[in-house]
């Protein structure tokens, strides 16, 4: 897990559970081996450029996440630089839920398989 993702995911509540269930030391040791600043390397570029779909999660004003599939031909996802991913946007169902959510909060999570 990357350094920045740990900062986001490992909240105080998560760390308390890790302590209770005995994984805190392991997670702290793994975190100490990670780079302070995360950048996309060659392995990530190859992986991402080979995807033909991914999931995009945004956060609504109600506090609930909204997860939407994004798909296209292989290569529609591009790594623009070591910290930026872009993709071709195709016409969808015209509900604009993700677009509306992004106007309220610019936080998203991208899930590539």
Description of the molecule:
This protein has 113 residues and is of the alpha+beta class. It has two domains: 3-33, no CATH class; 42-111, no CATH class. The chain has helices spanning 3-9, 12-21, 24-33, 42-49, 97-104, and strands at 53-59, 65-71, 77-81, 84-87, 108-111. The strands form two sheets. It has a three-stranded antiparallel sheet with strand order 2-1-5. The chain has a two-stranded antiparallel sheet with strand order 3-4. The longest helix is centred in the N-terminal third of the chain and has 10 residues, at 12-21. It is globular and about 45 Å long.
Integer average pLDDT: 91
User: What is the total number of structural domains?
Assistant: 2
Query: What is the C-alpha radius of gyration, as a whole number of Å?
Result: 17 Å
Largest sheet report: 3 strands, antiparallel
- Count of helical stretches: 5
Strands of the widest sheet, in order across it, are 2-1-5
Terminal-residue CA separation: 15 Å
Order of helices and strands: HHHHEEEEHE
Structural class estimated from helices and strands: alpha+beta
Q: Which spans of ≥5 residues are poorly predicted at pLDDT below 50?
A: none
User: Would you count the extended β strands for me?
Assistant: 5
Binned, the helix content reads 25-40%
Q: Tell me the strand percentage band.
A: 15-25%
Shape: globular
Topology:
Elements: H1 3-9, H2 12-21, H3 24-33, H4 42-49, E1 53-59, E2 65-71, E3 77-81, E4 84-87, H5 97-104, E5 108-111
